[in-house]
Amino acid sequence: MTLAFDALLAVALVLLADAALRQRRTSEAVVQFMVFGLITALAWIRVDAPDLALTEAAIGSGVTGALLLAALRRIGSEIPPSSRVSWWIRLPVEAGCLALGGLLSWTLWTAWPETSGLAAAAHQELPRSGGTNPVTAVVLNYRAWDTLLEMAVLWVAALCAFALRDRSPAALPDPAGPVLRYYLARMMPLFGLTIVYLVWVGARAPGGAFPAGALLGGIGVLLLLGPQPPRLALGSRTTRFLLAVGTANFLFVALAMLGHGELLEYPVAQAKAWILLIEFGCTVSIGLSFTVLFAGCAGHLHGEPEG
User: Fold this and answer.
1) pLDDT beneath 50: ranges in the chain
2) Which stretches within 112-208 are classed as H helix?
3) What is the model's pTM?
4) Helix 237-256 vs helix 144-161: angle between axes, to the nearest 10 degrees?
5) Can you say whether the dihedral through the CA atoms of 39, 41, 45, 46 is positive or negative?
6) Per-domain residue ranges of the chain
7) DSSP string over 113-124
8) CB 62 within 8 A of CB 217
9) Which of 158, 175, 173 is nearest to 232 (CA)?
10) Could you give the CA distance from residue 145 to residue 130 in angstroms, rounded to a whole number?
């Protein structure tokens, strides 16, 4: 039953992604994408990966959905007739999606029981990784270089968002209602404590920099939608520093490790402290990067420095 469920879920995800090709309104396609992110989060829960499920729900559905909706507000929700996908293009794409779904299902059905992967080796090395949470060990210890490059890519994406500042509208209406005003006035301290908790607990339980950064980015989006949105300026030293602090902090730790052996090879006794230092820096940069990306789409970026 477990493998059958996984196979059916894989096919459902592919079909849901393929449904976006049939939409005549881009707003409907965005909603399909957000639903796809939520279903993917359920898939991660199904394979006992709550860290990834939380990150997927917050980033893949929440923050990314907000980015796409903000972009739609500026370009319009209707697809021009000339840009709609023709049936003779859509048909082979749909067939390819179905074939890919079938291949993934067959792979899950045949290879999963016989393949243990590196799980046993990863769990064996957990005492030396600086934490007891396997996801944190993988992200910041076993494959730390990949995570460093992911932070660099996110930083570059946030910098590219500043290219949208010259096309930002002069003024935007205030969409803040009573519920949002209440959240901004009363819930911010709780959100802040939750972010710190997610980073701290990530060494031994589901959490870490990416879920915490996604929550911080969500708070930034709420602030931009509030009655007094913060002013994000290209020339602001604070904005540029906070965008770069995650990647710069990661590189600093990597270079500091040279005195103990190799890049990003933490001493066993100090591994947790170094990982927490990386996590807090990455949380700030991830959250601000998502906020800047949304601000660029919604028209809240400015070219002049803050006064």
Assistant:
1) 1-2, 167-173, 305-307
2) 119-124, 134-137, 144-161, 178-186, 188-201
3) 0.73
4) 160
5) positive
6) 1-115, 119-307
7) TT--TTHHHHHH
8) no
9) 158
10) 16
